[in-house]
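Predict the 3D structure for this chain.
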Amino acid sequence: MTPDFIIGGAPKCGTTSLHKILDQHPDVWMAPNEVYFFDADDPIAHGDFLGVNGTDLEWRDPTTEQVKAWYEARFSAAPEGAFIGEDTTTYLMSDVAPFRIKGLNPRVKIIFVLRDPVQRAFSQYWHLLRTGRTVLSFEAALSAEPSIILGSTYTPRLRQFRAAMGSGNIHVVVFEAFNTDRQAQMHRITDFLGLSRMSVETEETWHNRTRYPKRLSSLQRLNRLGRHLVPYRYARHLNRGASFKARTAHRAYRKWFHYVSERVLTQDVPPEGIRAKTRSYLSRHLSDRNAGLSDMLGFDLSDYWADFTS
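Done. Predicted structure below.
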């Protein structure tokens, strides 16, 4: 049993809301949480998943029969005849995911949600802060945390997915258009998936709102502790056997993250915005990294993304 469709990215682009909306469709069953299967051994998408035991490299290997069985088991609770979905937003960041997906199911449909690359990069930075992965300023993190820039590099990855799966199996949603007219976008998505249309007026449509601290420095201080626990966040992913140390650190991370989420992340807006000079750099650089994207999608993305130059 494998999914009929995948929400494949990008991170911090409202994919959780799309997941929750589609899960309310009467014919759809969504695997709970992100699965992280096709890119589980990708150090770019998942640096946390690789580790060192003594002098030996340890990694999650999605090509083994045991792990493939684990993946199929993620969908075992789906009712008979359901249209099955998976949501893993890091697939768009991975160079290995497209052809692995094709190898397992060449007919699977894939949805990508894309957001203004500059705003997405800033949101990714706050995600790294909230999960304990960095103590740096946004400017310093741009070079130290590759996922910030790579997560906003859409064009080459979309080309890879189109080459692997065919353009007819790929549907791209613009985050800003989704927020402006959610009903129209959901009609396009259900039509693409071959599902009956659904009214989002009667469904809960906003999920996973980002929360921020009052002061950046407060979270940075906490992260000096939390970042040592981060490598154990996924210690048990793919049913991987974990040592006593890893299990203990995994529980400690969960407690740390809960404390930060409940006690520190109390604001609806970030305490600091993007500095003008930083925005100017990102606008130019990310526009260049995404050259040709408007032509690929057939409409001018600068109509939606103020920081984007087609």
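The longest helix spans residues 244-264.
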